Amino acid sequence: MRRGALVVFEGCDRSGKSTQCKKLVESMLEKGMKAELMRFPERSTVIGKLIDSYLKNSKDVQDNAIHLLFSANRWELKPEMERKLNEGVTLVVDRYAYSGVAFTAAKEGISLNWCKRPDVGLPLPDLVLFLKVSSEAAEKRGGFGEERYEKSEIQARVAKNFEKLQENDWEIINADQSMEDVQKQIQNVVSNLMNQDLPELGKLWT
Ligand code: Z5A
Ligand code: MG
Question: Given the CA of residue 51, which atom of ligand 1 is nearest to it?
Fold first, then answer.
């Protein structure tokens, strides 16, 4: 049986990741494909609940330690991800290790290389869709929320880190377009992937 594909969405605040992940899963299911939505952080686990209270500012955690918890939250879901992929389910993932690195490395005194290490060896995405939104378009989509990183200085440093992490095979999507146009572009890229043979699942940053 053909394995499922690992499709990751990344991008800055309000770029439309959650909207497009949901639309992609719905359209794949409508076409009779096996697809499921996942997100990181996955706030429902014990580690995820700690991350949730950190993001909501109800708990402070030392910077390196919270980074390791975000990574641990991905590792704890690795067996489930691999099982589903092997069952032929395509996973559409809202944020992954790239967000982990981009956000922590935006803090003082923590290097990009240090940030990458805990995630080395996680399942390698078959496709990374990076939704690139201008600050003008993002602002029109409403103000920042109440969570810890939702501030423009932090988001600007995060955007720079995403640029450093970008690899040649990322698909950069202009997320300033209408939701429908973004969705069409994503569907083209994903249907190309689904028509290709997938190699054995790789390991991230190895
Ligand atoms: N974080 C971390 O530090 N370390 C890690 O390892 C990981 C994450 C994995 C949780 O984020 C925080 O954790 C995040 C990074 C950090 N901190 N920040 N910032 P989250 O994923 O839970 O954040 P969120 O609340 O989902 O926000 P978001 O991801 O920034 O938004 P989005 O998913 O990209 O956008 P959206 O919710 O789909 O859309 C936003 C609004 O725009 C909404 O009203 C839409 O209807 C509208 N929208 C969407 N697309 C369009 C278009 N094309 N045109 C017009 N309007 C649109
Ligand atoms: Mg989101």
Answer: 13
